[in-house]
Amino acid sequence: MRQSSIFLAALLLGAIVSAQPPQAPKRKKILAIGQTKGFQHDSTSDGLATLWKIGKETGLWDT
């Protein structure tokens, strides 16, 4: 009798733990540096903006 009570309690505990919603992964932090020496190409600012936009849309990282 006692063994079946322990089994039932363990089964109930397992059901409660598995019912918890999955946690979202922690956001990464990316440091993007756009410093240039001399000539600055237009694609530098476009690339930095694209990194920021993709991170914002996906929620995977903060830039």
Fold and architecture overview:
The chain has 63 residues and is mainly α. It has a domain at 23-63. Helices cover 54% and strands 6% of the residues. It has 2 helices and 2 strands; from the N terminus they run H-E-H-E. Strands 1-2 form a two-stranded parallel sheet. The model has no long low-confidence stretch (mean pLDDT 81).
Question: Which features does this protein show?
Answer:
63 residues; mainly alpha; two-stranded parallel sheet; 2 helices; rod-shaped
Strand segment count? 2
Q: What percent strand?
A: 5-15%
Q: Distance between the terminal alpha carbons, to the nearest Å?
A: 59 Å
Low-confidence stretches: none
The Rg value, from CA coordinates, equals 25 Å
Tell me the strand order in the biggest sheet: 1-2
Query: What is the overall shape?
Result: rod-shaped
Described by strand count, sense and barrel closure, the largest sheet is: 2 strands, parallel
What's the mean pLDDT score? 81
Order of helices and strands: HEHE
Helix content: 40-55%
Structural classification: mainly alpha
User: What is the count of DSSP helices, taking H or I runs of 4+ residues?
Assistant: 2
Which secondary structure elements does this structure contain, and how are they paired or packed?
Blueprint: H1 2-18, E1 28-29, H2 42-58, E2 61-62
Parallel strand pairs: 1-2
